[in-house]
Amino acid sequence: MAEVILNQVVKTYGSIYAVNHVSLTVADGEFVALVGPSGCGKTTTLNLIAGLIPMSGGDIYIGDKLVNDLDPKDRDIAMVFQNYALYPNKTVFKNLAFPLQMRKLSKDVIDSKVMAAAKVLDITHLLERKPRELSGGQQQRVALGRALVRDPRAFLMDEPLSNLDAKLRVQMRSELKRFHHELNATVVYVTHDQLEAVTMSDKMAVMDGGYLQQYDTPKNVFDHPRNTFVASFVGSPAMSLFPLEIIGAGTSVSLGSPEGWSFPLNELNSRKANASTGKKVILGARHSTITVHKTAHPGAVPGKVYTVEPTGDVTFAQVFVGDSIVVVSVEPQVMLRLDEPVWLEFDQDRMHLFDGQTQLALNPA
Amino acid sequence: MSSGQAIFTDGPGTAPRRPGLFSRMWKQRADYLYVLPAIIVMLIVIGYPIYYTIDLSFSRTPTTLKLSDKTFVGLQNYVAILTSPNFWKVTWQTLVWTVLSTIFAFGLGLGAALSLHREFAGRAFMRGLLLIPWVISAVAASYVWKWLYHSDFGAIGALMVQIGVTDEPINFIDNTRTSLYALIVVNVWKEFSFAMIMLMAGLQTVPESLLRAAQVDGANAWQRFWHVTWPHLSGVSMVTILLLVVQNFNSFIIPFVMTGGGPAGSTHIWITHIYEIAFQRQNWGAGAAYAVILFILMMILGIFYVRALTRGDATRAGT
Ligand SMILES: Nc1ncnc2c1ncn2[C@@H]1O[C@H](COP(=O)(O)OP(=O)(O)O)[C@@H](O)[C@H]1O
Ligand SMILES: [Mg+2]
Questions:
Q1: Distance (Å, rounded) from C-alpha A234 to C-alpha B84?
Q2: ipTM greater than cut 0.90
Q3: Fewest beta carbons less than 10 Å away: which of A160, B80, B104, B228?
C-alpha cells in the first residue's frame, strides 16, 4: 500500500471547474472519504487519481511516484464502481481473474489468488455464476474481490454501497471497515452520504462546488466545521443555522434578532463575534446542544413549535425562531404540541459562530 | 407451518395450461380489429401478388403476353430451373456476391464505427462523409462507378497506370473473371455505412464504467474491445449481418445498371436473372417459379431475423 497525494489538482470542462485546486494527502493505510452533494466533483477527483481522465492542472503522487502521465494500468490502483461494473458475459471466477490475466500471471498463480480472494469475501460458492445471477450484495462482493486480487497500492471506491438496500448497506459498511482494517489498505472512498463518511473514514474530505471545503477527522469536522456549508452538510439532523446581529462590543456582546429579542454571549463567544467582518453573524447549533424550555427562561430565545417527529428514543421537533427553522430534540416523554410556544437555550460552549459575510467559522479575536 | 401448506409458492404442475391458439385469438378479437385496416392493405398489396406469382409459377404463358391464356403445366417450370446449369451458375454467383459483400461491408462498417466512436476534431464531418454512400441514389452511384471502372476513360484505370501498377488500364467490368468482384467492391462501398450506423448505435450501449473498469484492470485497447465492447455488440451485429444478407440476396440495381448481368452472364445474380427471364425473355412462368424459390429462401432468413430481433424479449418478459 502507498500514500496518495493530490497537489493543486484542477479539472475543467470548458469554463466549468469540476475540481478546483484540490490538495490533500492520504497517508499509507488511511481510509479517506470524499464526501459532498451530487455534482460537487467527487467522481471526477477519483477518476483523476485513477488516471481515467486527463488533468487540467496540478500533480498526483502515488507512493512517491509522480503519476500525472501514467496510464491507469500503470498506476497500480484498483477501483470499485457504483454499479459494480462486472463483466456481464464472464463468470465470477473470470471476473476476478481478469486483472491478473491482463498482467500475464501464470494460470496457477491466478487460480490461487482468485481462490484466496473469494475465500476472504465468502463468495467461493458463486464462482461459476454470471453477475446477473447474483444479488446486489453478492455483486458488490465480487466487485470488491476484483479489486482485492491484485494487491494494488490503493483502492478507489465510487459510491460502492449506494445501489444496495438500506439494511445491506449498513452491514456492508461494517464489512468494508473490517476489510480496510485487515488489509491495512489505503482507501479513497467516494460517497454523498455524510453518515457513511463519518462512520467509516479516518479522515473525511468535504467537497462542494469543486472545492475542498474541509479535510480532517470526522470528529474534528463535526466539532469544528470550517464554514456554514460543512456545518450544515455533516451531521443528521443538520445543524441549524440562523442569521443574527451583533449588539455591543468588547467582552460583553449580545446577539439580537429582527424580532427584538437578544441574548448575551459568554466571553469566548464575544471574542469570536468581535472577529466578524461586519455586524452580521450566523449562529449554528446542533439539536443536542439546545435545551427546550416550556416557559420563559433567562438567556433563552422564544420560538414556536412547527413539527414534532417522535422516533422512539428521542423526539425531534422543528421550531420557528423568527424566520428560521431550528431543529431540537427532547426526551420522548416530553410532550410538545404544534404551535406551542417554547424557549430555546443554546449551550454556549458548543455553539458555532460564523461570519455573516464570508460564511467562515469565527475564531476568537 | 406444520401442515406444509405453502401460500405463496407455486407447486410443480400448478401453472395453468396455456389455452389453445384459437381461444386466445377469440379472447383478443378486439385487438385484431385495430390491426384490421393494416392487414387488409397488406393482403391487397403483398398477399395478392404473392398468390398470383405462385399461381403463375405453375403455368406456361403465351408469348403474346396475354396472361389470361396461361396453361397449367404443374412443376415443369421448377424442374426446368433446377436442372438448368445456368441456375446453379447464378446461384453460385449470388452466394459469392452475398457472402463477400456482407463480410466486407460489416468489417468496414465496424472499423468505421469504432474509429468514429472516439472523440476527435472533425468527427461529425467524418461521420457525415462516410454516410454519403448510404444516402446517395444507387442508380446514380452505379453510373458513377461504371465510369470510374471504364477501361478507356475510367479514373481507376488511369490512376493504376499512373502509379505504375499496370501498363495499360485493366478491364474490370468487361472481363468475366473480374466483373463480379468489381461490382462487389461497389456494393460494399454502397452499404458499409449502413453497418456503420447500426454498430455506432450499438456502441452507445456499452457502459462507460465497464470500459473504465477494464482500463484500471490493465486491459489495452484491443483487450477492452474484445472483452467488453464486442460482447455488447453481438446482438446488433447479428441483426446487421442478417439484414445485409437479405439485402444482398435481393440486390438488383448495381449489377443491372453497371453490367446488366454481363459480360456473358458473369454478374448475374438471382434478381437480375429473374428479371431477365421474366421481362426480357417474356418467360413469365419460369420467372415466377424462380421468384417463389427465392421467396422461400428469404422467408427462412426472415425467421432467423425475427428470432434475432426478439431474442431479448422472451427473457425480459420472464418466460
Ligand atoms: N464529461 C463531462 N463533461 C462536462 N462536465 C462534466 C463531465 N463530467 C463531470 N462534469 C461536471 O463536473 C461536475 C462534477 O461531476 P462529478 O465529479 O461527476 O460529481 P459527483 O460529485 O456527483 O461525483 C458536475 O458539475 C458535472 O456536471
Ligand atoms: Mg459521482
A1: 86
A2: no
A3: B80
CB crowding B244-270: b at 16 or more within 10 Å, else e: bbbbbbebebbbbbbbebbeebbbbbb
To the nearest whole angstrom, how far is the Cα of A99 from the nearest Cα of chain B? Answer: 5
Question: Minimal Cα–Cα distance from A163 to chain B, Å?
Answer: 15
**Amino acid present at A29:** G
Size of interface A-B (CB pairs under 8 A): 55
CB contacts of B217 in chain A (<8 Å) are 73, 98-99, 102, 146
pTM, two decimal places: 0.78
Could you say which ligand is closest to the alpha carbon of residue A83? Answer: 2
Kindly state the cell numbers that stand for A264.
448575551
Q: Tell me which of A15, A43, A81, A83 to substitute to probe ligand 1's pocket, judged by most ligand atoms within 8 Å of the beta carbon.
A: A43
Instruction: Say how far apart CA A228 and CA B99 lie, in whole Å.
Output: 69
Instruction: Confirm whether B7 is domain-assigned.
Output: no
Residue B207, chain A, CB below 8 Å: the answer is: yes
Q: Structural domain of residue B222, as residue ranges?
A: 85-317
Give Cα A336 to chain centroid, integer Å: 33
pLDDT digits (tens, 9 = 90+) for A152-199: 999 999 998 888 888 888 888 888 888 888 888 899 999 999 999 999
The Cβ of residue A103 has, within 10 Å, a number of other Cβ atoms equal to 14
CATH number for the domain spanning B285: value is 1.10.3720.10
- Cα A214 to Cα A206: distance, rounded to the nearest angstrom: 5
The answer to whether residue B144 is domain-embedded is yes
Any domain includes B11:
no
Q: Tell me: the pLDDT tens digits for A288-323? A: 999 999 999 888 999 999 999 999 899 999 999 988
Tally of domains in chain B: 1
Distance CA B254, CA B235 (A): 29
Sheet containing strand A341-346, edge to edge, reads A290-293, A341-346, A301-310, A315-321, A324-330
**Dihedral sign from CA coordinates of B257, B260, B261, B262:** negative
Cα angle: B201, vertex B207, B210; to 5 degrees:
140
SS3 A306: strand
CA distances (Å), origin A339, targets A292, A303, A317, A336, B203: 14, 9, 11, 9, 59
Helix (H) or strand (E) holding B225: none
**Torsion angle, alpha carbons of B6, B7, B8, B13, to 10:** 60
* Non-local CB neighbours of B248 within 8 Å, separated by 6+ positions: B97, B98, B101, B102, B187, B191
Determine the residue of chain A that is closest to B219 in CA distance.
Answer: A102
